[in-house]
Amino acid sequence: MERKTWSPKAHETHLHRDWWIVDAEGLTLGRLASQVAMVIRGKNKPTYTNHMDMGDFVIVVNADKVVLTGKKETQKFYYRHSGFPGGFRQTSVRDTRRTHPERIVQNAVRGMLPKTTLGDEQMRKLKVYAGAGHPHASQQPKPLPIDSRKAS
After folding, report:
1. 99-132, pLDDT tens digit by residue?
2. What are φ and ψ of residue 70, in 5° steps?
3. Which residues contact residue 109 at a Cβ distance below 8 angstroms, ignoring those fewer than 6 apart?
4. In which domain, by residue range, is 26 found?
5. Residue 5 lies in a domain
6. Integer distance in angstroms from the first to the last C-alpha of the chain?
7. What pTM was computed for the model?
8. Residue 150 clears pLDDT 60, i.e. is over it
9. How far apart are CA 55 and CA 101, in angstroms?
10. What CATH number is given to the structural domain containing 137?
11. Do 101 and 107 meet the contact criterion of CB atoms below 8 Å apart?
12. Does residue 29 fall inside a structural domain?
């Protein structure tokens, strides 16, 4: 008897993508991002395949109220470069929270996804909003069970 591991092909999957919602208020950034990245990649499903996009959509609300531990608020920086001489820029988390609070969660989740076009495709399934409102009510998102350990 020959034993083979079954791997789903693109034409074999009858993909159904669920919509999940997470309230980030009071949650630690890293714990939140790792759980959201797992769902976006599809690692919580029995049909997970690392070379295909099998994940679900995730809506994160109240991103401006996510908690960072330690001194990350002032000592953590986001870096970018324009490609031109003197084009190096850095922004602290404090400044990012003031101007674009949703980018804090987006950057954390993006760092946990593959650095390929597959990761770009999976990142499109993340919807982050600074406040409590979101325009995805018609998708009827279910609450995503996140580890309940809150930051103290």
Report:
1. 999 999 999 999 999 999 999 999 999 999 999 9
2. 65, -145
3. 33, 36, 37, 40, 123, 126
4. 19-68+102-143
5. no
6. 56
7. 0.89
8. no
9. 24
10. 3.90.1180.10
11. no
12. yes
